[in-house]
Amino acid sequence: MPRTAFSTELAPQPKNPVSQCVRAGNIVAPAGQTGRLLDGTLPSDIEGQTRAAFANLIAVLASGGASESDVVHVRVYLTDQENIGVVNKAFETTFSQPYPARTAIYVGLRAGVLVEVDALAVID
């Protein structure tokens, strides 16, 4: 099955050799998105980073032809498990019921980065 890469200027561009988003058939897979803003800055708090990370994710999904209603699974990478409540609030405002499945993973991220999200979407 052929793969097609997509990108958008509405989210920060990857600095590594990865595609911002890849579509294969009806599957859309964005690269992980942090809370980095378009100007390259990073909000200092978990709320700001989480809102920006989900906004970046939705923008990148759209470049591949998907929307938040097409998302079937989300992975959230957090540096502190106490921040899951903030993620839950952002998740509820980003997605509607029935919510996508979700996995939360507690990890070490680059300096200053508190959260990263990725997803898998299936489109008709």
UniProtKB/TrEMBL annotation:
One Pfam family matching this protein: Ribonuc_L-PSP
Segments forming a coiled coil: none
Gene Ontology CC, one term: cytosol
The organism's place on the tree of life at top rank: Bacteria
An MF annotation (GO) of this entry: deaminase activity
Protein name listed in UniProt: YjgF/YER057c/UK114 family protein
Species this protein is from: Rhodococcus wratislaviensis NBRC 100605
